[in-house]
Amino acid sequence: MDVTVVVCTYNRCESLLKTLxxxxxxxxxxxxxxxxxxxxxxxxxxxxxxxxxxxxxxxxRFRYHFEARPGKSYAMNAGIQESRGSILALVDxxxxxxxxxxxxxxxxxxxxxxxxxxxxxxxxxxxxxxxxLPSDRFALAPLAGFDPGREAGEIQELFGTNMVCRRSLxxxxxxxxxxLGPSANPKTPRVNDDSEFIRRILNGGERIFYEPSAVVFxxxxxxxxxxxxxxxxxxxxxxxxxxxxxxPPDAKWLxxxxxxRFFRRLINWTVRWMTAIGPAKRFSNRLKVQWLAxxxxxxxxxxxxxxxxxxxx
Length: 313
Hints:
With 313 residues, the chain is an alpha/beta fold. It is built from eleven helices and 13 strands. The chain has helices spanning 13-24, 47-57, 72-82, 101-106, 137-140, 167-173, 193-203, 227-245, 260-275, 279-306, 309-312; strands at 2-9, 33-40, 62-66, 87-92, 96-97, 116-118, 121-125, 153-155, 162-166, 208-210, 216-220, 254-255, 258-259. Helix 2 (47-57) links the parallel strand 2 and strand 3.
């Protein structure tokens, strides 16, 4: 089995150093061959020097690739093209892995029935969790945590912080959509790049294995534990869901391309937000309002773009 761990990075040389140190300590079973490919997405800090140091310390283990086009999806697609492994593992540039992570996450691939695998992403808080922040997975999604709390077995979801796939999946289904995910383009929703790909392969009949012992750790910096960060993320999530799934095909009543039921749900959740008791419950309802607002916005944008110019004049 040959494996490439792809780490896409942009101006995070300090956290990248910790990520690469953790990967360098990985244990893998013989006769597995593996490499770490760092894709530098046009960083202006010391990223290149940081990676070069690992290439010198671990010859033939670490490689560096530069991708000038800004956007995480461009970087991931470049990493897929430049990789050498038949198994590709994706890890964020601010995450760290347990020494046994690679060994555990590769185990399912001995059975050809599994096309992809993943494990939990455990959050490492640098500050106390505020009272207004709910503890459910819906609310914590912007922090990239993933902990289904279940035993090993088949799963129907996976996220890029701890995602491992057979290379053949990208050859069969294509790479990551560049109109989704973190990007320099402010019009691009910064989410759903990974979940859209997973949806694609699931629709194609592929199967995903969840291995709870294959743990990745993701930091939670204090500047992300802000209401504005969560609200902006969920607005983008609503937009990305429409881009990914389109306007519901069963929507009978539309206003400016927007399903009328979206407005009803928006009003419903707004009332729940305004009347909820307790800061966590109130903020959870507010996030759903924000998500629906993003969906409505993107439906309107898509409808406006589709209108003939003479109708828009």
